[in-house]
Amino acid sequence: MARPKSEHKRNAILSAAAGVIAEQGGSATTARIAKEARVAEGTLFTYFANKDDLLNQLYLELKAGLRNAMLHGYPLDASLRERAWHAWNAYLDWAIAHPAERRALARLTLSERVTEASRKAGNDGFAPISAALQEAAALGKLRDHPVPFVGAIMNSLAETTMDFVAHYPAEAGRYRTAGFEAFWSAIAGG
Amino acid sequence: MARPKSEHKRNAILSAAAGVIAEQGGSATTARIAKEARVAEGTLFTYFANKDDLLNQLYLELKAGLRNAMLHGYPLDASLRERAWHAWNAYLDWAIAHPAERRALARLTLSERVTEASRKAGNDGFAPISAALQEAAALGKLRDHPVPFVGAIMNSLAETTMDFVAHYPAEAGRYRTAGFEAFWSAIAGG
Amino acid sequence: MARPKSEHKRNAILSAAAGVIAEQGGSATTARIAKEARVAEGTLFTYFANKDDLLNQLYLELKAGLRNAMLHGYPLDASLRERAWHAWNAYLDWAIAHPAERRALARLTLSERVTEASRKAGNDGFAPISAALQEAAALGKLRDHPVPFVGAIMNSLAETTMDFVAHYPAEAGRYRTAGFEAFWSAIAGG
Amino acid sequence: MARPKSEHKRNAILSAAAGVIAEQGGSATTARIAKEARVAEGTLFTYFANKDDLLNQLYLELKAGLRNAMLHGYPLDASLRERAWHAWNAYLDWAIAHPAERRALARLTLSERVTEASRKAGNDGFAPISAALQEAAALGKLRDHPVPFVGAIMNSLAETTMDFVAHYPAEAGRYRTAGFEAFWSAIAGG
DNA sequence: TATGAATGAGCGTTCATTCAT
DNA sequence: AATGAATGAACGCTCATTCAT
């Protein structure tokens, strides 16, 4: 093969896209992304069929990165609260370490251009966390909340917490704990 | 430009904008909005200096509408929980009655085109609710959470609840209560 | 109405398109056409939905112009030969007077982008000439040739004649006559 | 570039080009041609300096192929009419046997990218046929037509005939004869 | 020499904004 | 003030050509 398609270049484009989307949101252009990735405009299209494809692949990549972060070291056998605490922290750690990725993911999640199929695929692999919630529900530990509702609550409280952590880094620890307490109080009981 | 002739026309444009943004998100064009408002393309620009101005004014208008809904009949002298319950229900009622507005507001809140100034101005007028939270905090009834954090938690849980209400209208009542319980548990105590 | 869409501008674009296509063929760009028409690039698209639409409308317009030229003064009651002679001359006169249009029409006729529907519509209105051929065939004056074949022969000989007239303007008259004689000999008889 | 390694590969590219141009006309891309020739995109440019060069060489190649077909078995000593009949049939046989080549040649003949020099060179080698026409003219057998005009008439009538043969294969024989009769009547006489 | 990824000028088209009416 | 045609910068994307392998 002449010059093989380089995983490095693909990642550079995805990474540049995350940065530009985090910064500019809906007005991120392919020209800007290519420039940021130090790649010709046309090159972007040898790695991604079109802009929507890039957006969807980026969404998937970000979801996968987050999942890896959350599931790395996940204490399968610990108590429910400990597992929740692990997931909570892993999420915050990832978000703190990857602010652009986090912002880009938030924007993509709300974009009309990310397909339903991508959303579904992106949520695969979060199975262990879902499983924990299912188990908790079965044990009657989740008040009366439907499982997906609890998942959504966790998500939205974590996002909110993350907003404060990002805004007040000096009090990151405090918000991290407070957010978790709020979450745990919100769902546990029964 | 400063004093448009017809308040009716201005409202038609704002209302059309809410509808189109709710539906199309980032790809809403001024041409489409004007058409929906039954107004010429150019007319839009005698009421709003440019698209960003329209977006920011719409954001403000939606925030004001929501505030009016939440504060109408607000029981200033009731218990903290009752006041929270009132606000909670008022929010959900507004969102159910104005789905396009709600969706547009959610999208604008995340848009890079709504300025910090607009966001600040938009949160003015929610003072009575903030006041209640302040009071609660002073009484030590809010665990240890900073007041703005509690406000944000309320907001994000209400949004999450609203998503489920919209998705499963048959179980609206259940989610309405469950969401409030989650919220109240999350923040009350101490 | 603010500024009505002007027939003049539409014609300027069509005329510019004919000129540029005659000159550049397949590599005629919308930018070049707009420039030649002294119109902004975007304006072209307020008169024509897209480039293909422009091409098809131009084809139709050129066909209509040619038809008008050929049918103007057409001697419905003259002899067959006289009617053929009239059509022959009218075609050559039009082609000589409108060299760019003629060349553009030739190119469009061969383009993949002119639809079957346009071709069909373009041939409507040449009915009187077709009728003459039908009549001649009925009278057994066309040797044994099928009518459409005779029409095609006339067309191709006229085109060939026109090529020579264009190339050797000094001998235009000679080719005009010689071409017609060739045509008439080719089809008449029986 | 001047001495490509493989004549086979050069032919594969030319042949693929004929096919793609016949099919797609002006929108034939070098990428598509290379793919069809089972050759890398870059390889095309080691055999041809650029796309225009490929087009011109293809034109020449097609002309040469047609010439070979027409001159093979050409009855130098037969009567004028017999020689014309031979050429006529040879052309139709070639066109029927090589539809893509014929179509590509027709398109290239009209393309602005085939140079005057190529056209001239392409017509060399049809000398024997020209010679026959010259001879006939000298003998006063060609009415009064200039020789090149007669050649062009033959060409355009053969093309027209070919269009009908391609469209109505069941009546190929009839059109073949009728076309020739039309041609012969058009030019012979005196 | 052959490969195919890389390049970037240039394409057709959109759209926020201006301006003649 | 209202209209909508006119504008042209900017977009996503294509493709002939180059060049590292």
Quick summary of this structure?
Chain A is mainly alpha-helical. Chain A has helices at residues 7-24, 30-36, 41-47, 51-71, 80-97, 99-109, 116-123, 127-138, 147-167, 172-187.
Class computed from helices, strands and strand pairing of chain A: mainly alpha
- Provide the residue-averaged pLDDT of chain A: 92
Enumerate the spans of chain A where pLDDT stays under 50 for 5 or more consecutive residues.
none
Quaternary structure annotation: homotetramer
The CATH class designation of chain A is Mainly Alpha
The helix tally of chain A amounts to: 10
For the termini of chain A, the CA-CA separation is 63 Å
Shape of chain A: elongated
SSE order of chain A, as H and E?
HHHHHHHHHH
CATH architecture of chain A: Orthogonal Bundle
The total of beta strands of chain A comes to: 0
Strand content of chain A: under 5%
